Amino acid sequence: MAARILGCRMATAWLADSMTSGSGDTTVELPMFPLGSVLFPAMPLPLRVFEPRYLAMLQDILSDEAAEFGVVLIERGQEVGGGEQRFPLGTVARISEVSTGEGFVGLLAQGTDRFEVVEWLAEAPYPRAAVRMIPDLEWDPDLHERRVQSEALVRRTLAKASEFDDQRWPSTIGLSEDPVASLWQLAAIAPLGPMDQLALLGADNPRRLLDSIFTSTQDAGESIDAWPDEMV
User: Fold this and answer.
1) Which domains does the chain have, with CATH numbers?
2) Which of 15, 34, 154, 227 has the most beta carbons within 10 angstroms of its beta carbon?
3) pLDDT 10s digits, 167-188
């Protein structure tokens, strides 16, 4: 519970800061796909699209050279049906594969750039927003040891969590050789809730991201250690 409250506070603090210290005045319009999970840069996003509004979105964007849409975390509500409230921080998803099934379109996208929502626009019929892109992190070679420590902790905690519940990512999963991409991937595979992940997505430098990954994963590990006692 404490870890979830901390994650909520960190995410709220980033969102408050971002409204006053944006990365520039240039905005672009993006079709949006609110989800119940956080998409990080350098991470895959498989989706099954069946709602008419999002099928219309795909029809509009697949003809573009870079077929992209924005993904934001739903603050309140559900993925299906509309009417949800959304957090104003997200990641661009670039479509790489499309397939069709009975009653749905399957797609695979990849997280690329982060953004903050400046304004939600009228739906047409899918959600749209004017967004401001957030500059990517710049790697600091002095962080190598801290990165190794954080990765080891995340993998140990994932292995521990998998003893009690199925995890989306195995503890042995490979990471990118690009240092910044591997940081985002480490944030994505850590066994954390969406509010903690949203706080990580808002990191403004690699040191802060690594420190937050380490601290949040430590908290998650302590919660996992308490699971056997709670099950008695």
Assistant:
1) 24-134 (2.30.130.40), 141-227 (no CATH)
2) 154
3) 889 999 999 999 999 999 999 9
